[in-house]
Amino acid sequence: MAEPIKVLLVDDHQVVRRGLRTFLEVQDDIEVVGEAADGAEGVDRAEELRPDVVLMDVKMPGMDGVDALRRLRELANPARVLIVTSFTEQRTVVPALRAGAAGYVYKDVDPDALAGAIRSVHAGHILLQPEVAGALLSQETNSGQGRGGSLTEREREVLGLIADGRSNREIARALVLSEKTVKTHVSNILMKLDLADRTQAALWAVRHGAAG
């Protein structure tokens, strides 16, 4: 049996953390490894526990979710971050996605949908609602503009699969490459297009017609 997905809960409301833990602990393939009450503690716990997925609130006292995301990126922490928020405004969600979140769900999400979202981001997928994807695209108009010609044919293939939401493992399987080679291609793509992460790469591919 595969190892369970290790999840860290970061939310300033104890009742929310308790509710999330209660549901997730009955999932055979998900293990809650810890909790944190604000962004700073969340970063410390993520470094200590090395979870696979972090469920992160946005609005918290002290260090909020966006700043915590930026700090995790600076530390090169590999955890995938799924925003869990009660705010529906794009001005709240978009900065978190730009800071490196793999997607977001609302706090009233159906429990089974939440479990599915955790599994999806753990597999390397990106969860975006259409209206938020549009907002991100509008903000990324100039990101990587004119640099697509510097990509090799193989890098374009990898970029197209990133836009399809494929994980590195899935890309490796599709292109008959090693995961290490795929990681190298992804790094080269981000560098050449001057993009920060896979989310921005996927959005760039959609805007510039590189998606499959």
Overview of this structure, please?
- α4 links the parallel β4 (80-85) and β5 (103-106).
- 50% of the residues lie in helices and 13% in strands.
- It has helices at residues 14-24, 39-49, 65-74, 90-98, 111-122, 130-139, 153-163, 168-175, 179-193, 198-207; strands at residues 5-10, 30-36, 53-56, 80-85, 103-106.
- It contains 10 helices and 5 strands, in the order βαβαβαβαβαααααα.
- The radius of gyration is 17 Å and the shape is globular.
- It has a 5-stranded parallel beta sheet, sandwiched between helices.
- The longest helix is centred in the C-terminal third of the chain and has 15 residues, at 179-193.
- The two termini are 33 Å apart.
- The protein is α/β, with parallel strands linked by helices and 212 residues long.
Could you write a compact summary of the structure shown?
This protein has 212 residues and is α/β, with parallel strands linked by helices.
Secondary-structure element pattern, one letter each: EHEHEHEHEHHHHHH
- Number of helical runs? 10
Count of DSSP strands: 5
Poorly predicted tracts of residues: none
Shape assignment: globular
Report the structural category: alpha/beta
Cα-atom Rg, whole angstroms?
17 Å
Share of residues in helices: 40-55%
Chart the SSEs and their pairings.
Layout lengths: L4 E6 L3 H11 L5 E7 L2 H11 L3 E4 L8 H10 L5 E6 L4 H9 L4 E4 L4 H12 L7 H10 L13 H11 L4 H8 L3 H15 L4 H10 L5
Parallel strand pairs: 1-2, 1-3, 3-4, 4-5
